[in-house]
Amino acid sequence: MRIAIDAMGGDHAPNAPVLGTIQAARDLPDVEFILVGRDAEIRVITSEFPPNVTIVHAEDVIAPNAEPVKSVRKQKDSSLVVCTTMVRDGTADAMVSAGNTGAFMVAGLFVVGRMEGIERPALAAMMPTFKGQGVLLMDAGANTDSTAKNLVQWAHMGQAYMRLTHGLSHVRVGLLNIGSEPGKGNELSKVAYELLEHDCSHFVGNVEARELLNGACDVVVCDGFVGNVLVKFYEGAGMGFLESLKHIFFANPLTKLAALSMRSGLKAFKKRFDYAEYGGGPFLGVRGVLVKAHGSSNPRAFEMAVRHAYNMQHSGLIQDLEQSIHG
Amino acid sequence: MRIAIDAMGGDHAPNAPVLGTIQAARDLPDVEFILVGRDAEIRVITSEFPPNVTIVHAEDVIAPNAEPVKSVRKQKDSSLVVCTTMVRDGTADAMVSAGNTGAFMVAGLFVVGRMEGIERPALAAMMPTFKGQGVLLMDAGANTDSTAKNLVQWAHMGQAYMRLTHGLSHVRVGLLNIGSEPGKGNELSKVAYELLEHDCSHFVGNVEARELLNGACDVVVCDGFVGNVLVKFYEGAGMGFLESLKHIFFANPLTKLAALSMRSGLKAFKKRFDYAEYGGGPFLGVRGVLVKAHGSSNPRAFEMAVRHAYNMQHSGLIQDLEQSIHG
After folding, report:
1. Closest chain A C-alpha to B73 CA, distance in angstroms
2. Which contiguous run of DSSP H or E holds residue B6?
3. Which of A167, A276, B73, B194 has the most beta carbons within 10 angstroms of its beta carbon?
């Protein structure tokens, strides 16, 4: 298996992608990792590249806020576009990037291409829950103004994903809605409910946002505008909560001492809500394994994203999806 | 001033509405409070009704999950419909209910009626922020599939509300969106951005959900589907987060002891995020002061909602809104 790594994408590039990849490469000696980016900038980071890590030089870098369509079209020699081209050509089986999310999706759509039968690929985000393994939200922002049919396709892809990568046999799908009874919601959710009821096994019906973190379902589908708002809000609220707690714990020497007694509990709590542990979001519905790592990924978060790409490829997810669409 | 109270609405009715109202009535002796509901059930709660609290008997109660339009139409003698009828007829200046939210909005729309010039009244929700006084979100769920023009009207109403009830002179309005640059988002947000830019003073542009709790704006406008998802998610996440903390604090005798040292900090933190302190959400754009208290309101939360209704009426908000629409 060969995994292409966009070494130049993300707030801490090239350090975080390079160091995260090296860590993953040590644990996965049979996998070949290809760091794509500016050769000199990559080499200067360390002198100890494992034998299964190689470098492919790409001169250009797509800026974090660059206009996605234009930059993918024009910056053919950017690390991101080279990575996706490798997946398209079969010189890589999977790729990971922490760069510009819009450009990542555009490159996925136009360089790698959609799976036949999938109208709109979707970005999936694993949201940590208070109970259980988390909930996979689709779409986390690739598509706005989506259709009910889109949501049904995402439900199917989400189910296959959770089955193969998390080992769940009954993957419960919920429709994010503003009421729990059938018939509630906006035009999209009313139609989507009908379709999902007939066309999705283990559909648990409408799920209100209040119940999302209590393990109400394993996959939740919604329009990408709503999903993106939710994922970003969760991130902001989580960071704010942790920040507030820090102030309480570090208020004075006594509270600092007291916080020590809670160390293990706090550590477990923080780990559960640390995005770094969740390994980035897969872009599902394109003809290859594409994983988007968080823009602010540190080496650990990037490493988890790389492992995630490995697991997806190893599980045969793409083949499974293609079969289930056409079978 | 006379305030009508739906004594039968909410999870803890009639206790919470009655006890909350009595508390507010003691502090506001010049205001007349009218408890609307089943006379016998209300009287049995206490023998000490202040002189400025009277009871108006209403036999019927709209159930929490009753179909809103049907129940408002048929249950004319329900506590909720009687309250709104009093506002319409001028026998009350304001009303508060913790009952069925859908029925509350339907009664507001069809009994009290829209303000002339307002296409869609909106439910406003004050969301606690990590910094500052909180952010007013409109619409929190009264309207799905809303138009850009709706959002502009909500922006104006939200500004008047924050100016009069929170004493802000420059009320910053943000458009909830999935990117910060102009031109981002779905069809609705693209058009709404253009309109707000031309027609709203102190428009700060797109606000991403990640920034919402950092004081990025005082009022944020969005479609009611998105708003409702956000408000409910916040509630669920907040409760889950506090629950998790409790487990950490009560893990063993040592952590319990340690938690004592952080008592004041934790108390302040909890108070900031306690919905009870925020006094319910006003339904803005109808011809009267209508405040929706949270369904799970305890006496304290209901009291705050009553005070909220008093403040809104006292500030002359409705007159101000009517003038600004027509002036």
Report:
1. 20
2. strand B2-6
3. A276
Contact A209 B232 (CB under 8 A): yes
- Which pLDDT tens digit goes with each residue over B109-152? 999 999 999 999 999 999 999 988 899 999 999 999 999 999 99
Quick one: DSSP state of residue B78? Answer: B
What's the mean pLDDT in B151-156? Answer: 97
Q: What is the pLDDT of residue A327?
A: 61
C-alpha span between A220 and A205 (Å, rounded):
10
Place of tokens 């993300």: A10
Of A210, A243, A248, the CB nearest to B266: A248
For domain B119-276, give its CATH number from 3.20.20.140, 3.40.718.10, 3.40.50.10490, 1.25.40.880.
3.40.718.10
Helices A317-326 and A148-166: crossing angle in degrees, nearest 10, is 140
Sign of CA dihedral A222, A228, A229, A233: positive
Q: Quick one: fold of A124-277?
A: Isopropylmalate Dehydrogenase (3.40.718)
Residues in chain A within 8 Å Cβ distance of B248: 262, 265-266, 269
Distance from C-alpha of B133 to C-alpha of B127, rounded to nearest angstrom: 9
What CATH number belongs to A1-118+285-327? 3.40.718.10
Residues A145/A193, Cβ–Cβ less than 8 Å: no
Round to whole Å and give the CA distance between A49 and A60: 23
Facing B178 at nearest CB: one of A229, A235, A240: A229
How many other C-beta atoms are found inside a 10 Å radius of the C-beta of residue A44?
A: 12
